[in-house]
Design a protein that fits this description.
This protein is of the alpha/beta class. Helix 1 packs parallel to helix 7.
């Protein structure tokens, strides 16, 4: 059997490694990029000088898959797929076309930066936030002592992290977003403000509710003009979100949320023997009990493993996703899973929530390093099933979000979580704020 994978990103790497380890087929892999497996979620650490180089942001190389028996073609994209003839067409480096047939096809075409069509977007030093070459370019630019001012457009996870990174390098930083607060589509207001306060305390300027009109400059960018003012900028980061890359299947494969390839729980598309994985595909979202678009490396890796097993005839079904994610800004850790109250309201889901603020350890221990832990538990009113959680603290309580992710996946009610047998040890986790939040919701 001949299998072709298009794309050697997180999903593609996971699918390829699984197929090669299981064996039993011939595998060819194509990727239009030279670099593969780049952890773009860590680029802010490199840009901000917390990593000495970008080498640690790669976890696989083309040779790894070649050594396992695959034929790997990097820097060579596929231009067309004939789904009826099961044939892919691409161009060789010399421009000559090539063709290859398949029995099974896995599309791991990933995502791309959402277009930001304003005047001046093509100026020098306007930098994307997707690829290794983007991060490499930013590191080179920011080394120049003449670069004094940075503007970050888009206050989601990556934009917020890059604002911190540039400020760590001593640059003046303005973080601009059309939304009224940072992390608008990820968290509720209370948790956005916890991160906003850390940014403000460290000198980042927050310009919310501002629409960018243009980037000004001659050949290089010099400022960013918005509906409210103009901000100096010798470097601009575009953090305006991502969208799935689906051109190869347009007109043949069914599309779902945000134009991603619609797949079932086996990662199969609407076309027999064609699978889609990672950022180019939909995923089942347990917090809404429906398909959704969630572009996360963790979800992408799982989807690649699932597709690989099914391609080889070994039945495996996705358990879905809760979209668990997080970040740390100047030591304030924020982790989330499932729906925020805002996200639920936007979808017309009738929810309620309970907030708890507690210390990590009992006050009787008299420790100075005993910070507050902020927790919000979101649940459906009609059946009291948990659909979301948000946690924030300068203490590393991030492991707790895994429990809430599992609770959403399993459809747990508040009552079941309230009486969960939680581990107790005063010097590690003396306060059961996990159960306290659910218990409080049960009694109100």
């Amino acid at each position: 059997m001949k299998v072709i994978i298009i794309g050697l990103n997180h999903a593609g790497c996971a699918a390829a490694r699984t197929i090669l380890n299981l064996g039993g087929c011939e595998l060819s892999i194509y990727d239009r990029n030279r670099e593969i497996s780049f952890l773009s979620c860590g680029m802010a650490l490199w840009i901000g000088g917390q990593l000495a180089s970008g080498e640690g942001l790669f976890y696989a190389h083309a040779k790894d898959f070649e050594d396992l028996g695959a034929k790997v073609y990097v820097d060579r994209g596929i231009e067309f797929i004939d789904f009826d003839k099961k044939l892919v067409k691409g161009l060789q480096p010399n421009g000559e076309p090539f063709y290859e047939k398949y029995d099974k096809l896995i599309l791991a075409t990933g995502s791309k930066t959402r277009p930001f069509n304003v005047l001046g977007a093509d100026l020098e030093n306007v930098v994307g936030t997707k690829f290794y070459r983007d991060a490499e370019k930013a590191v080179r630019i920011l080394r120049d002592p003449e670069i004094k001012n940075a503007v970050v457009v888009g206050a989601g996870y990556i934009g917020t992290e890059l604002a911190e990174a540039c400020r760590r390098l001593g640059k003046e930083v303005a973080l601009i977003d059309i939304a009224p607060r940072i992390l608008y589509t990820h968290t509720d207001e209370k948790f956005s403000h916890l991160i906003e306060n850390r940014l403000l305390e460290n000198g980042v300027k927050l310009q919310m509710s501002e629409r960018v009109l243009s980037f000004e400059g001659d050949s290089k960018v010099r400022s960013v003009r918005t509906v409210k003012g103009e901000y100096p900028a010798e470097i601009v980061f575009l953090c305006t979100g991502f969208e799935p890359v689906t051109e190869l299947g347009r007109g043949v494969l069914k599309l779902g949320n945000q134009g991603a390839f619609l797949v079932d729980r086996k990662q199969q598309t609407s076309q027999k023997d064609v699978y889609a994985i990672g950022d180019c595909a939909t995923i089942y979202d347990n917090s809404i009990n429906d398909n959704n678009y969630i572009a996360l490396a963790s979800s992408a890796i799982r989807s690649g493993i699932i597709a690989a097993h099914n391609v080889l005839g070994q039945h495996m079904t996705s358990l879905g996703s809760q979209g668990s994610s997080g970040l740390s800004i100047y030591g304030m850790r924020l982790v989330t899973t499932g729906l925020s109250v805002k996200m639920a309201n936007d979808r017309g889901i009738d929810v309620d929530y309970v907030d708890v603020v507690d210390k990590q350890l009992p006050a009787s221990l008299r420790r100075s390093d005993n910070p507050d832990v902020h927790l919000r538990l979101v649940y459906r009113k009609k059946d009291r099933v948990i659909v979301g959680a948000q946690m924030a603290s300068t203490y590393d309580m991030s492991g707790g979000i895994h429990m809430y992710s599992l609770a959403i996946q399993q459809g747990l009610t508040l009552e079941r979580l309230a009486f969960l047998d939680n581990f107790f040890m005063p010097q590690i986790v003396g306060n059961n704020y996990y159960g306290k939040a659910a218990m409080r919701a049960c009694t109100t």
